[in-house]
Give the backbone structure.
Amino acid sequence: MMNIKNGLVMEIQGEAAYIMTSSGEFLKIKIDKNKTLPILGGEYSSRVVGNPFMFISKFKYAVSACLLFFMLSLGGGTYAYYTPTSTVTININPSIEFKLNRWSRVLSSHSLNSDGEKILLEIKTKNKSIEDALIMVINQAKQDKYINDNYTDMGKTITINIVGKEVGLPSLQKELSKGNVNVRIDSNGNNIYNKNDKKLNNVSPKNNSDKNNVSTNANSSVNKSDIDRNNSNVNINNKTNKVLDNTEEINDNSNDRYSNGLENDNKKDNDNSNLEKSDGKLHKDKIDNHHDSDKEDKNNNQDNNGKKK
Amino acid sequence: MNLKKDLNDNRNDFIEKSKKFIHSVAANICKKSLQWENDDELSIALIAFDKACESYVEDKGNFFGYSKVIIKNALIDYFRKNANNPYLTFSTEDNQLEYIDAKNSMTNYELEQENIKRGEEIILFNDELKKYGLSFEVLAKSSPIHKDTKDRLLNLAFICANEASILEYIYKSKMLPVKQICLLTNSNRKLIEKWRRYILALILIFSNREYVYIRSYLNIKVGENDEY
């Protein structure tokens, strides 16, 4: 072995002896109990008691190489972790955008509207997996009544948009399929999951069997149709204004009258919509009915205008 | 005894017979082929051998062991005093083998005698070191390992041991005159300060005439500066 040295014994101290080697080194060596004891002035060879720095100096290159490798891999790992590779946007009504790294962990999140901001204030999504984050957002949205029965009834859809590296969301899909919320997941423009269709197929026969549905569905989307109606009113009024130059006052009056009538309608509608909540209704049906009612409204308006004319 | 008779009455013949031994010892230290006609080293060795014959008493151990020590020291002294002193090195090679050979020819009694002599020297040396606040424990901790450093310090100590003013300063103040050594040896201050304990120990070994055995134990040879 390398560190066995032979030298002149200069001093003996307990289990150690100090020697001077012929090459001019002073060393501390361990006294081997199997050999004869060293005599002062005699020659003796044994293992050198190494100082701890010797050990380090021997392995310093290996150690520094290891350290360098470790630091590089750590740096590389951190860089890879903090490089966003994909963006996921969830749109309930609160809209939130998540930036993800390659391991589908949330790096940063920011809201796209004020509702989203509220949700984000209440949950912590940083470094969570995207599936957990999305589930948290949806649960929080449910808690804050962004998603309620009305939401589902109105056939609104949660859209989740993935841009960038593909992100699998199996457990989210599983979780969502239990609930009754419509969900659509798009990845880079391709639809990869759409819960809406499923529900349509399941529920449509039941809908058809309900005769009442046809009438009640129209009422469910009253608010929306109201706006449409108003819009159409304005349009029609404008048209009539063009035709009739001197009928401003009359038109105003008729508008007032009409809006009064609408208010009454609204009250009725609300009552009705309360009643039909228990019925599972269809988005498509609603839209169809909605259109029908719009048409009717238009006709009515035209009739009214015609009469006034 | 045969040897005693040889030493006292028949010395010329004995030296003539031992020429080969003297030559090998000297050549081993000088590391070059020596010729009886040309080289001073051999005549120095020859004179030293003659001195050894004179001063030898039986309690000094084996005669050849003793004479070898004397020759070695004489040569080292010669190097020291020589104007163009050669670069000296500590050698690790073939010393072991040679030593074992020398030992084989020694009887147990002779070996013991030599050890006792050396032991006495070491005790003396240790006492002297203590005056300078040094011990072998401290020396072991601040002893150079790298060969280049060791050789450099050896030459440095050698030059210092040759300089009376430096020795005087050391004996008086128990410290190394670092500045003076710097000037004398053209070496940098840091080196001297770092190895000051080791340098001091070497200077003590070389400057004191009594440490014959310790000095001869150090395997000092002539080397070329660029060889190492």
In short: Chain A has four domains: 4-50, 57-81, 86-195, 210-308. Chain A is about 55% helix and 20% strand. The first strand of chain A starts at residue 4 and ends at 13. Residues 53 and 60 of chain A are 10 Å apart (CA to CA).
